[in-house]
Amino acid sequence: MYEKIILFVFGTCIGSFLNVCIYRLPKDKSIVFPPSSCPKCNKRIKWYDNIPVLSYIFLKAKCRNCKEPIPFRYPLVEFITGLIFLLLYLKFGISLVYAQFVFLFCLLVVVSFIDIDYHAIPAYMCVLGITVGIIFSFVSSLKVFESGVYDITAMPIYDAILGLLIGLGFTYLFKLFGDVFLSIFLYLRNKQSIEGETESLGLGDVDFVGMVGVFLGWKMAILCFFIAPFLAVAYSIFAIIFKKSHLIPYLPYLSGATLICFMWGPKILNFVF
Ligand SMILES: [Zn+2]
Fold it and tell me: For 244-260, what is each residue's pLDDT tens digit?
């Protein structure tokens, strides 16, 4: 029992660090220095006001100094990260695969929230994911660590590389066709094509699917690619009705689809075929 509580609490602390990454990485700021301060009044945040999830509640969602509201996202990210650490532990125990998927899902949290803010992510983020994923596969291919019996074990290195190549290639082809269709569509409607608007998918999306291929294999990469639009459409309908906005960042849906593939991917494939 204790180890579960400790892992959850540790996860929320890592979540606090992920918040720093989400806020600073797109601005090209260091994630280590300086310590956190309030974005409005610049007052350094004391350690007792920086306790994951709890400080948000104790401070009643306001900066202690200037009463600037603290966005709900901060405790949310901390809580989600705590859950990632706990739930993956229940599935895998402490093992190499545990570390691998904790890394993946933490990265998905960062990527998703940056995409929500900026509609783009720094290009190196998926490259980082791909590199770390391949290193994990390489190490588990060496069978240095005994990983036991799991539904999805770490990919052997050749499956990871195959997943990467098919994930990237498939999505990139899709993007090429999508771009052509989109330009024809815009041309027929006599719309001036504004820079970037003739892009059906961003290169970030292509890299992302390649990354999913490294961690979950090529079948899951393609499945994830096809599940994401359903999630996006469901949310868009909701957003259009309730918020009257139709700007949609795509990576949160790809992340959601990755989670679905991770949990039920093989079952979905069995059901479809
Ligand atoms: Zn403040």
Answer: 555 668 899 999 999 99
Distance 57 CA to ligand 1 centre (A): 16
Q: Please tell me the pTM assigned to this model.
A: 0.88
Q: What is the pLDDT of residues 79-130, one digit of tens each?
A: 999 999 999 999 989 888 899 999 999 999 999 999 988 888 888 999 999 9
Q: Which residues are within 8 A (CB) of 24 and not within 5 positions of it... i.e. 6 or more apart?
A: 30, 31
Q: If you measure from the C-alpha of residue 67 to the centroid of ligand 1, how many angstroms do you get, rounded to a whole number?
A: 6
Rounded Cα distance, 55 and 16, in Å: 11
Nearest Cα to 218, choosing from 179, 169, 151, 176?
A: 169
SS3 of 11, please?
A: helix
Distance 55 CA to ligand 1 centre (A): 14
Residue partners of 158: CB distance under 8 A and separation at least 6: none
Q: What angle do CA 134, 137, 141 make, to 5 degrees?
A: 140
Q: What is the pLDDT of residues 53-67, one digit of tens each?
A: 999 999 999 999 999
Q: Is the dihedral of CA 227, 230, 232, 234 positive or negative?
A: negative
Whether the CB-CB separation of 175 and 159 falls below 8 Å is answered with no
Q: Specify the residue for token string 């949990």.
A: 263
Residues 75, 56: contact at Cβ < 8 Å? yes
CA of 49 to the centre of ligand 1 (A): 12
